[in-house]
Structures are given as structure tokens and as C-alpha cells.
Amino acid sequence: MSDDQRSSLSGNGQTVCVTGAGGYIASWIVKLLLERGYHVRGTSRNLDDPKNAHLRELEGARERLSLRKVDLLNLESLKDAIAGCDGIFHTASPITNDPEEMVSPAVNGTKNVIVAASEAKVKRVVFTSSIGAVYMNPTRGPDVVVDESCWSDLEFCKNTKNWYCYGKTVAELAAWDEAKERGVDLVVVNPVYVLGPLLQPTINISTVHILQYLTGSAKTYANAIQAYVHVKDVALAHILVYETPSASGRYLCGESVLHRGDVVEILAKYFPEYPIPTKVKEDGKPRAKPYKFSNQKLKDLGLQFTPVKQSLYDTVKSLQDKGHLKFPTKQKHSAKL
Questions:
Q1: Residue 88 to residue 82: CA distance in whole angstroms
Q2: Each residue of 221-256: pLDDT tens digit?
Q3: End-to-end CA distance of the chain
Q4: Active site (catalytic) residues
Q5: Which of 100, 103, 171, 317 is the most buried (most CB within 10 A)?
Q6: Is the pTM of this model over 0.70?
């Protein structure tokens, strides 16, 4: 890329911090930021972790990426990493259903990011929340459109022991409260279930969900629904809300809601060589119906969502390329997208 090209990019001259830089979504954010000319500081609890090695191979990383060892629960280390930054992308979060490991670290880590952002006078913080902070509400009717005004019911999350959704909800609420109190410009992205190519060498929870249907470990599929989105779209959504001065509030980031039966059907169409399940687990029960949701706020910023079949296809190809999914000995010809 020439200097002329780089000077015309949105990130020229800006330094931004990405917490948890080696993660699935964060890696894509770092990649796109570097492509746009930003200087990026990535944080990690362990700089020697092999899951961070891929970041150094990204285009522009040698010139404009630095990695800092940061514990989000240690405010001083966070302040050092953020000092001098124009903006922050706070993506780091525990992913677990253990309440002790999920709730307190998510809330306190997020509060510390907002405190450090306030002291560093950054222009904007973009926080990665989740659909888990939006849609867990048993009283919502089937015709209600899920949008940015919806919040998960904390008592329902507690009663069903869904500590991941509980933790994401209380962490986002804490972010809004802390940002308001300290005058920090906060924008939140709420992604649904994320699919697409892995940049990191390690497998992650969302791709395990698809992998089980290809390895034969899942003999049936659940009578359940899930909203999906491509990881590149999620990364781009973060950058769009950072770069758009008028962006505010929450942004629901999802492409479509599918029944698991639709998912296995798409997988079987493109990858017939794998033992993809054809039977539903809860046979005889009414088929779960997809909920309605709106992604209009992000579309209004110009985001064009990748179709879910492409996301599924890209996920499988990536699992093959990274060696997480073996090619079957009896090869049929995979369909092309």
C-alpha cells in the first residue's frame, strides 16, 4: 500500500486500543483497522500465548501494531495501554457459564476500561456486548421485533442459570452507567452468534457449534433457533460506529435467524461428504419458530450483511484450512457457493 493510499484512509494518524486482541472478533477488528491505516495497540493477559502470534502476521502489523500485557482488573496496566489513544474497542470478556468467572470480571473489567478512557480523554469507546444482553425475556410476544430497545431479563437469566447472558447484560449496564457518570462517548455493538473464518489458530466456542455437525459427534440437531452473523461484518460494524460521529446507543448486529434444521440443510448442501445429522432431537414437538429482529440501525450506516449461507460455508472452509476438520476419505464433490 502506498503512502498516498494510506493517507486517504480513515485511520491515518489515529491510535486505537483493542482489548483482548487475540480473540475471534478482536482479531478481525485489528485486521480491518490496520488495513484502514490505524496504529493499533492490542492488549492481552499473556503476550506469549500462541493465540496472539497470528496478529503479528497481519498486513501492516510490523509498522503499526504493538501488543501490551494488560490485566483488565488491574487499572494501572490498563491506563498505561490506553494513554495517548484516540479510541478504544473493548472486546475482551470471559466466555463461560460459570458465574464467578463470568460476572465479576466482565463488570469490573468494563468499568476499568471506561475509567481509563475517561482519564485518557479518548474520543469514543466501542464496547462489544452481545445478543445475550438483548433477547432473554420470557414475556416477549412472538410478534415483537427484537431491536436495540430490548434488554434481557436479569431474573430470568438467573433462574435459568444462564450466567453468560446475565454477565453480558450487567456488564453492558455497568458500561452505560460508568460512561454517563464520567462523560465518556460510548457506543455498543450487540452481535448475535458469530460465524466465519478464524484468524487465530485455536478453535473457539462459536465454531464448535458448527464443527459438531461435521464430525459425526452430533447424531441429531436441536429443535432450536439461532441468529447468525459473519465475523467480518461484526468487525466492520465496530469500525463503522467508531468512525461515524452521529453513531450512538446500541447496534444489533445479526444477519438472520435460522432453525438448526436449516443450518444442517445448508451444510449438507455444500458439504455432503460429511456425516451431517438429518434427525431432530425433540421429534414430535412443534418446530421452534424464529424470532423477528431488526438490524436497520447498522444498515443505515451502510453495512451490507453477508448472507448466512456464506458465513456457514466460510466457517467450514476455515476449519478445513486450519486443520480442525479433516477431509473425509470418501470424497464427494463439495458444492461451490
A1: 8
A2: 999 999 999 999 999 999 999 999 999 999 999 999
A3: 30
A4: 168
A5: 171
A6: yes
